[in-house]
Amino acid sequence: MLTKRIIPCLDIKAGRTVKGIHFENLRDAGDPVQLGEYYASQGADELVFLDISATQEERKTFAVLVNEIARHLNIPFTVGGGISELKDVGPLLEAGADKISINSAAVKDPAFIDKLTKEFGSQFIVVAIDARKINNQWTVFTHGGTRATEKKLFSWAKECQSRGAGEILFTSMDHDGTKKGFATDPLVKLNQLLSIPVIASGGAGRMEDFLEVFTIGKADAALAASIFHFGEVGIHELKQYLQEHQIPIRT
Hints:
Blueprint (H helix, E strand, L loop, with lengths): L4 E9 L2 E6 L2 E7 L1 H11 L4 E5 L11 H8 L6 E4 L5 H10 L3 E4 L1 H5 L2 H10 L4 E10 L2 E6 L4 E6 H10 L4 E6 L11 H10 L4 E4 L5 H9 L5 E4 L1 H4 L5 H10 L7
Parallel strand pairs: 1-4, 1-12, 4-5, 5-6, 6-7, 7-10, 10-11, 11-12
Antiparallel strand pairs: 1-2, 2-3, 7-8, 8-9
Helix pairs in contact: 2-3
């Protein structure tokens, strides 16, 4: 069995790490460069940095910040936010990003996924899907969770895979920031539908939530933010706990 990954996520706005609930009421969580370096030293398997206001503000992710982050890391990291053209990707990879994450641009133009995978390879492309349950269907949202679309989670995830996405990062907006556990039911279905890795996001509050997302939800990786940022769960302790419960994890 492949080892499961623990991935801290740093949502960045105006150069600072922020975190909210249901994508709203953001509060400051610290300097992204310092936090990234700290998480790497604590045993994080990867990091995700998302410039959460880049798409709404119609600007690009700052390659300068990406470069600064890269200089302080020795683990893979993914960068997303405001990536809408092929020419946006090269500077981020050159600055040190290992993978890029796209969301709104992929929904707007699904062929963008094909173009990216052809140009850079599937292993570099993560498609992030933000969704919440509306009328008993998981509806996809874009622009930092502010715009509902006609796309549905499961059909859209399958299409992303067919177009060459290397991974799916699924965030349940209903669970985001609540610390009441991950959305395991849709994760199980995604696992059944897809052959590419699925990263679970939204809802981590206790170490038990990570155990559930790996055993019940069948996620390949678990991403969390506030519980790490505010010291509620330590990555080293979390990995020890998962090992004790027979979860294959990197130490």
